[in-house]
Amino acid sequence: MYILGINAYHGGASACLVQDGQLLSAVEDERFRRLKYWAGFPSESIKFCLQQAGITAYDLDHVAISRDPSAHLAQKALFALRKRPSFAAVRDRVNNMAAVRDVKAALCRALELDVNAVRADFHNVEHHRAHMASAFFVSPFQEAAVLSIDGMGDFVSTMVGQASGTKIDVHDHVLFPHSLGIFFTALTQWLGFPNYGDEGKVQGLAPYGTPRYLEEMHKMVRLLPHGAFELNLDYFVHHAQGVDMTWDDGSPNIGTLYSQKVVDLLGPPRQYRGEYTQQHYDVAASMQAMLEEAEFHIVRDAYKRTGQKALCLAGGVALNSSFNGKILPETEFEDIWIQPASGDAGTSIGAAYYVYHQILGQSRAFEMKHSYTGPSYSNQEIEATLNQHNLTYQTIDDAALAREAATQVAIGNVVGWFQGAAEWGPRALGNRSIVANPRREDMKDILNARVKHREAFRPFAPSVLAENVGDYFEQTYPDPFMLKVYKVLEAKRQEIPAVTHVDGTGRLQTVDHDVNPRYWELINEFGHQTGTPVVLNTSFNDNEPIVCSPEEAVNCFERTHMDTLVLGNYLVQKAK
Same domain, yes or no, for 329 and 352? Predict the structure, then answer.
């Protein structure tokens, strides 16, 4: 049985293919189209998934999309009667819902299919149920509390439930227009970050400030009994006049979400690329503190409702790694699992597994232990690319590869590391990574000046051998997907300054030999050479989606000041 899962007409358009419960492939269209968070119909991802499996769309049994325009119709109608949104807002929403309803036609157009020959059944899965399914059905747990928090999807921003075996039961939800994701995005815009996906930057900015504006944040977000919350809508505009949103082919755009009342409360917004003041740092710290307070409110109530010891978390807000790292030490949950693409891209997996388990009743037999589900390339393909670019390279056998690469990192070179299949989700996890020496205090500035060109306040991440986590961090719970921030042990902060943030934390990736042996060997060899089994890991890109193909890796290498490139079993060095 083949099930194609799709996230379409929304940021992070993606597709996955499941065969008899096993995940064969999963990828986002941005990796092929080279536009961040590409929105539209994920035709390139679908083509890749089918090609990898050696099948055509005519072989599909089911197609699932992670949107259901029929969900919460009564609430939508009541809201429209009360608020009377603008004609433009209604028109855009109707057009989007029409596209979501007609997935079969879109699939046939994209793949040039005979609509009468497509035998698959098509399913619309409610957005947050897809989020929840993406977290639980591929987790290691047979029972768990399940929580989805994001901006908005199918008129819901937050959903709480309990899962067991092949069933997820929804306990409660928070409806539009109340949303923690919209709260955080609105203030991210006020801080001068206008682009879709910029919320992560605020997490890096927040540790430079203190939450002295928390009282002001409490005016915008009110916590209610039983894990509920509401926004003070006077501070926002999305509910009244609508917001310009573009989900067509291309990078998504969202218009301004905050009202004049935010400006009256906090002052004029920071201009895009303007200077930072202490106020900006403090507002960032305050909105992060408010988000965490609200999330703890929801998470603790979920524990009371379910009595479960394990928590599965999904939704765009689940990418807030600063909060995620506090859940186990500060709540009664003992286990946690967060899908590596917990944002909207991950709902393609959720839609597919929701159909397989919840609708079809099939038993569970898959656990997502890694995120390497995208395109991979042979040494022959890599060598052909290097030759096309007239690059001089060394061919290194497997036994010596880790040693040679680790030596490059140890001497201070910036190394592009391209191996195996591309990662699923927003994090580079050792297959499409730039690797550097975390022991050098100046390495963060070197990377920003020569390759990444990012804001100086944004930290870089440590990849650490799974068996050495406790030697460097206060927590030892594994995090192979780089979705939690832990405190670095005070005694180790001077040893790894390039990956220790200003508040003494690091957003770590734990690396297990059984999951990624080649990356593990690189870090282990670096540990032998330096005494530190930790490397700095950042995504292999420069203000673009993470590189996917050898051609993109070579292009990034050539246009930046990277020192060394390791693709498969080939090593390239720039002349000094």
Answer: no
- Looking at the structure, do residues 6 and 45 belong to the same domain, yes or no? yes
Same domain, 406 and 325: no
Instruction: Indicate which CATH number applies to the domain containing 181.
Output: 3.30.420.40
Domain for residue 510, yes or no? yes
DSSP 8-state symbol, 433? E
Before 85, cis peptide (omega within 30)? no
Cβ atoms of residues 354 and 64 within 8 Å:
yes
> In DSSP terms, which residues pair with 487 in a beta bridge?
505
Establish if 374 belongs to a structural domain: no
Confidence of residue 245 (pLDDT cuts 50, 70, 90): confident
**CB neighbours of residue 422 within 10 Å:** 25
Determine the Cα–Cα distance for residues 151 and 434; give it in Å rounded to an integer. 31
pLDDT at residue 476 is higher than 70: yes
| CA end-to-end distance (rounded Å), the chain | 54
Helix axes 103-111, 87-101, angle to 10 degrees: 70
| Overall domain count for the chain | 3
Residue closest to 351 by CA, chosen among 139, 170, 125: 125
> For the segment 314-360, what is each residue's pLDDT rounded down to a tens digit?
999 999 999 999 999 999 999 999 999 999 999 999 999 999 999 99
DSSP state at residue 463: E
Query: How far is the C-alpha of 226 from the C-alpha of 235, rounded, in Å?
Result: 24
Estimate to the nearest angstrom the gap between the alpha carbon of 244 and the chain centroid: 23
Strand 310-314 vs strand 335-338: parallel, antiparallel, or unpaired? parallel
The amino acid at residue 158 is: T
301 and 409 in a common domain = no
Tell me phi and psi for residue 204, to 5 degrees: -75, -30
**130 and 209 fall within a common domain:** no
Per-position DSSP letters for 147-211, written without gaps between them: EEEEEEETTEEEEEEEEETTEEEEEEEEETT--HHHHHHHHHHHTT--STTTHHHHHHHGGGS--
β pairing state of 534-539 and 432-436: antiparallel
What does the pLDDT look like over 383-433, one tens digit per residue? 999 999 999 999 999 999 999 999 999 999 999 999 999 999 999 999 999
Laid out side by side, the sheet with 22-28 consists of: 22-28, 14-19, 2-7, 62-65, 121-124
Whether residue 165 is found in the same domain as residue 287: yes
Asked if the structure places residue 237 within a domain, the reply is yes
Contacts (Cβ under 8 Å, ≥6 apart) of 113: 57, 58, 107
Domain of residue 287, residue span:
148-339
**364 domain-assigned:** no
Answer yes or no: are the C-beta atoms of 299 and 323 closer than 8 Å.
Answer: no
Which secondary structure element, helix H or strand E, spans residue 82, and what is its range?
helix 73-83
